[in-house]
């Protein structure tokens, strides 16, 4: 989906963007640096967050700036990994069975496990964005439920509900394969 072109910013929105870039830019860069392989990619993702903000009308209406910025950052990193995964899907590695043999693990098992992971990733992208973000924060990034609730400015019960919905959906969608 193509993004709308950037429109000239109102002067008060420009001031807010510059202020937020100075105030939150280093924290965003640190957030991304922990999740990508190079500082250049982290810089690009920080820029993406602010470009997304620049496309939004009336920045002054954002009530919780830090929460909004980091929610946007989570969306950016999710899209980054989705694009990265899809661009790598076309690449094929030559497989030399003698180099990849692990005692007791068959090629069929490895392929079945890869397929299970691919199915899980696909199912994750079928979840609503907020539910997926909460699931990823809790299960993959190790955040506590209370921290997620505070970061997203939602109640702990809402976090629990999203996690329960995600778990139920993923179990149903992917199933218990073993």
From TrEMBL:
Gene3D superfamilies: 1.10.1740.10, Winged helix-like DNA-binding domain superfamily/Winged helix DNA-binding domain (1.10.10.10). Residues 22-85 form the RNA polymerase sigma-70 region domain. It comes from the Bacteria. Residues 120-166 form the RNA polymerase sigma factor 70 region 4 type domain. Keywords: Sigma factor, Transcription, Transcription regulation. Belongs to the sigma-70 factor family. ECF subfamily. NCBIfam families: sigma70-ECF. This is RNA polymerase sigma-70 factor. The lineage of its organism: Bacteria, Pseudomonadati, Pseudomonadota, Alphaproteobacteria, Sphingomonadales.
């Amino acid at each position: 989906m193509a993004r709308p072109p950037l429109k000239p910013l109102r002067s008060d929105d420009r001031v807010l963007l510059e202020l937020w870039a100075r105030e939150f830019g280093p924290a965003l860069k640190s957030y991304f640096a922990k999740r990508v392989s190079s500082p250049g990619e982290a810089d690009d993702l920080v820029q993406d967050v602010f470009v997304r903000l620049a496309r939004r009308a009336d920045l002054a209406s954002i009530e919780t700036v830090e929460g909004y910025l980091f929610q946007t950052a989570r969306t950016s990193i999710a899209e980054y990994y989705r694009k990265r995964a899809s661009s790598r899907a076309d690449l094929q590695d030559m497989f030399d069975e003698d180099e990849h043999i692990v005692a007791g693990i068959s090629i069929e098992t490895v392929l079945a496990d890869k397929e299970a992971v691919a199915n899980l990733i696909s199912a994750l992208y079928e979840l609503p964005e907020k539910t997926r973000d909460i699931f990823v924060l809790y299960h993959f990034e190790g955040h506590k439920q209370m921290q997620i609730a505070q970061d997203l400015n939602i109640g702990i019960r809402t976090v629990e509900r999203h996690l329960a919905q995600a778990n139920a959906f993923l179990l149903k969608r992917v199933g218990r394969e073993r």
